[in-house]
Amino acid sequence: MSAIEVQVASRILKEHYGDIVDKVCTQLIKYGSTPLRPLAQELSLKVDQVKKALCVLIQHNIVTFKLHKRGFVEYSAKVDHVLMIPRYPHYIYCAKTLYGDAGELIVEEFLQHGQMLMSAVVDKVSQRLSEAMEAGQKLDPRIVPGKFEDLVNTHFLQRLPAPPKQQEQEKAPSNAVPKLELSEKDMYRIPQGVDLVESNRRKRKRSVTDSGDADRTSKKVRGSSSTGNEEVASDAGVVWKINFDRFHQHLRDLEIVAAVCRRVDWHAGEIVRTMLRVSELTTDFNASETIPIGFHDIMRALPPDLKMTRNAAEQYFKLLSDDQTRILQKIGESGGGTYKIDLQKASQAICTATVESIVQERFGSKSFRIFKTLLIKKHLEQKQVEEFALIPAKEAKELLYKLFAEHIVTVQEIPRTPDHAPSRTFYLFTVNISQVSRMMLERCYKTLANLMSRRDYETKENRRLIEKAQRVEAITKSLQSHGADPTQTAEIEDMITAPEKLQLEQYKRKMAKLEQSELQVDGTIFILSNYIQQEGNR
Fold it and tell me: Which of 368, 398, 431 is the last residue in one of the domains?
């Protein structure tokens, strides 16, 4: 974890959760696991303020807690979860692509609230979908629970560990930290006996009757105690959250399919997509390769509209397995062959292509030629680089040492004598793609921090105009809701002059460009960090 990552995480936390949450989480990121009271003393904050901040962070799965062996509770923050917040639009788009509007809203609710009950999510999403429908249309009450179950069955949602049963909890001391536990088989299992369709109907019916009987409601509230008559949800205690690894796996698979499509064609990409889809639930995100899949199983799983014959499929499999990237590997001959996808080599190929594009954009085509030559030939002397890259000696030397100064290219010394004399030493230039990826990742985080700083600066510069536009818009909507004349609303809208409208349009265009740039930079961060993680798991 570098200083620039901590800086970016701090900016993200301040933007989404406020100053106090930012201070608490940044302190935990910098100094590791810390108990509550020392944390409050270090930050010069009240204990209650720190407690509320920790509750927010725990709710959003950013902070975890555990019981220290000496008997006190310590809290630790996960910086990776903070750095994933700019990627939320990608997660929402994935859910919309796979499961439609209902899936999109379900994922959006989880990203906003962190942890939720299934009944609460289904109720909120059903209400939002009903409000978005035109007059006369009715929402099928089975749609949202069905989409929720689909997200669980495909592992995009997972259960959180829960405290032990009430009998065991009563035996434990009152100040003991609850031990959260969940078996692996229950992580993606919806509890039996939860009928969300019927419960939603009863809620809507109850809300209609209760609104017309205020006296009975008030009596019920006064008569109920904290332990007695309060209604408990049918799925109480079963809390769900987003499985980010599953979303990352899906995004990685999309990158692999796109890379194969660019390198070969669309049909080859569909073959790889089918193999990834067949093995997606049985392959861990950190696995280096997929499970072996038989040729006939792949043929049965191919989309019917592809209309690929056996001979054509065999040619594509041979082409992909003979490719120098070695993404697809054949490991068996029986029954038409058995194939697997090497996810580590796929991540390396995608990362290498990304680094190559960065070098080409930043240093030009000739520098890219030198970089590509060193990638292929591994180790070359300066004179060999000039010959293989077909660049004049003076220009090649200048470009090569510029890449060396930027740490894109490294030098390995091979002395012929023990004294390491320069005249008797070979200087071989090479490219360490892992080292370059880490450096590029640092620069991407720095770029992201700069984009966020620029966005804050633009907002501060135009704060007065933005607030004025918001007030005018609020007044206009209020007049329209009360049936005001169009002339009255037009007069209110004319409070913003033409130059101010032009300035607002320029501000909106700048913000749109900055937000789009942040998404693109985050896409590059995802590719680089995925490769670095695969390298670490090797």
Answer: 431
CB-neighbour burial class of residue 500 (10 A; exposed 0-12, middle 13-18, buried 19+): middle
Residue 8 burial by Cβ neighbours in a 10 Å radius (0-12, 13-18, 19+): buried
Is 467 a member of any domain? yes
* Strands laid side by side in the 73-77 sheet: 34-35, 73-77, 63-67
pLDDT in tens, 448-500: 999 999 999 999 999 999 898 889 888 888 888 877 778 878 888 888 888 88
> What is the tally of structural domains in the chain?
5
Q: In angstroms, rounded to a whole number, what is the distance separating the alpha carbons of residues 94 and 162?
A: 28
In terms of domains, do 64 and 93 share one? Answer: no
Helix (H, G, I), strand (E, B), or coil: what is residue 251? helix
Closest by Cα among 522, 532, 536, 537 to 348: 532
User: Is residue 394 domain-resident?
Assistant: yes
Tell whether 531 and 449 lie within a shared domain.
Answer: yes
For residue 144, give the H/E element and its range: helix 143-153
At 502 the three-state DSSP class reads helix
SS3 content of the chain, % helix, strand, coil (to 5): 65, 10, 25
Task: List the beta bridge partners of residue 338.
Answer: 294, 332
pTM attached to this predicted model: 0.85
Listed residues 83, 117, 133: the one ending a domain: 83
Residue 442 in domain: yes
Tokens of 152: 């669980």
The verdict on 125 and 136 lying in the same domain is yes
CA dihedral angle for residue 228, residue 232, residue 234, residue 240, rounded to 10 degrees: -140
**Do 261 and 282 have their domain in common?**
yes
User: Nearest 10 degrees: CA dihedral of 237, 238, 240, 245?
Assistant: 120
Q: Strand 157-159 and strand 239-242: pairing?
A: antiparallel
Cα(62)–Cα(51) distance, integer angstroms:
14
Residue type, 239: V
CATH of the domain at 270: 1.10.10.10
- 396-452 pLDDT, tens digit each: 999 999 999 999 999 888 887 777 777 778 888 999 999 999 999 999 999 999 999
CA atoms within 13 A on the CB side of 37: 1
Q: Which pair of structure tokens corresponds to residue 208?
A: 């209609």
What domain range includes position 370? 360-431
- Residue 351 in any domain: the answer is no
Q: How far apart are CA 122 and CA 200, in angstroms?
A: 8
Statement to judge: residues 427 and 445 lie in one domain? no
**532 and 467 inside one domain:** yes
